[in-house]
Amino acid sequence: MLSGFHTTQDRRIIGLMSGTSADGIDAAVIRLGEKDDGLSLDVLGFDTVAFPTGLRHGLMEVSDSKTGRIDELSRLHFELGELFARAAYIAADSAGLTMEEIDLIGSHGQTVHHLPERVGRFGVETGATLQIGDPSVIAQRTGVVTVGDFRAADVARGGQGAPLVPYVDFLLFRHPEKVRALLNLGGIANLTVLPADPKPEDVLAFDTGPANMLIDAVARAELESDMDADGATARLGRPAEYLVADVLAIPYFERPPPKSTGRELFGDRCASDLVRAGREAGLSSADLLATATEITVRSIEDACRRFVMPVVTRLDELIVSGGGARNGFLLERLARVLAPAEVSTSDDHGLSSDAKEAVAFAVLADRTVRGLPGSLPGATGADRPAVLGKICLPG
Ligand SMILES: Nc1ncnc2c1ncn2[C@@H]1O[C@H](COP(=O)(O)OP(=O)(O)O)[C@@H](O)[C@H]1O
Ligand SMILES: [Mg+2]
Fold it and tell me: Quick one: which atom of ligand 1 is closest to the CA of 354?
């Protein structure tokens, strides 16, 4: 435990996150304290800081093993560190606070490659994952203790290094009677299932597959837009069942958890195959977007049927967060296929669905400086829970 952090008094923590969509930095300021039945948490400020023009493209190039260059990777690591630090100032400002009033920063960084499967080489066997946006830069710019690189400790314990939000879901959303599932719809869809009155080891969590990643890529190709806002175009189309089935045949979907995925499997190559096949078959833009949306819906439905229902037998509530919570059509489809589960957004439970992941890394940073584990072996596949992250001291 880092001395000075074993207080039970309220602390103000900034959480910084950029997900697989690489659309910008989500920056949240929380007040975290203790109450009788667990944590008390308020979101004091939040902002999404869009990436400068060209940065997303640079990240896509560097993330792809065919186009990535080590000099670009090194540069982006530091440039992102600077941009994350700037986002921290913007978040503090949005909360009406100065940086001197912030106790701690937790920064997830930007994943550029995620290879969770263990491979044996050179007499060792390990998975690998890489998040950039150096936390030392953030600590130096802000003067605030910064925790970064949350995934490595879990990978070192034989886990996938993902998903990491489930422990925070457990802390914030567990319910004495209801079976709840939390679904974050970022580039990738992450599901956390909380049985009624759960213990940490009862939590089931994994990545179901793509959320917005394919939808966004199809929108870029067909609408020259970064997204299908509210799912308005998909709503007008009809999914091509055989194309949905083609993607759902990817072996990832039938693999039992623990499992996590990313752009390596559902990135631009998967999307361009889908767009090409759709165009060859004469599908309209609306049909292609309906198809991409249906892939997301059905992969989540299948994951619930295959891996969730056998464990919990019923699902009372599905609480959605992430940018996909703004896609009304996607939510309607999910509500239909997962009925009778009641579908809501995390906003309905008092936590902004845009801020939720950034908030989670603020909470995880607090655990780290207290020497408490933040991972769930049931979610990541590690041999035991790990204290996550690297602590960078300013000064
Ligand atoms: N109004 C909207 N309608 C539909 N989709 C949206 C909307 N706003 C955001 N999104 C989707 O959410 C994505 C970003 O979600 P986010 O949770 O930030 O993902 P990530 O964690 O991968 O960065 C966008 O790429 C877009 O696909
Ligand atoms: Mg994002």
Answer: 17
Residue 2 scores a pLDDT above 90: no
Confidence band, pLDDT 50/70/90 cuts, at residue 1:
low
Determine the angle formed by the axes of helices 268-280 and 213-223, rounding to 10 degrees. 50
From the CA of 212, the nearest ligand is 1
11, 339, 359, 365 from 42: Cα distances, Å: 11, 31, 10, 16
- Fold of the CATH domain 166-349: Nucleotidyltransferase; domain 5 (3.30.420)
Distance CA 334, CA 340 (A): 11
Domain definitions of the chain by residue range: 11-162+355-392, 166-349
User: What does the pLDDT look like over 355-373, one tens digit per residue?
Assistant: 999 999 999 999 999 999 9
CB-based pocket (< 6 A), ligand 1: 19-21, 23, 186-187, 212, 215-216, 227-230, 322-324, 326-327, 357
**Owner of token pair 């030392």:** 136
Which of ligand 1's atoms lies nearest the C-alpha of 21?
22
The token duo for 202 is 């009862």
Hey, what CATH class is 11-162+355-392 in?
alpha beta
Q: In the predicted model, what is the mean pLDDT of the chain? A: 96
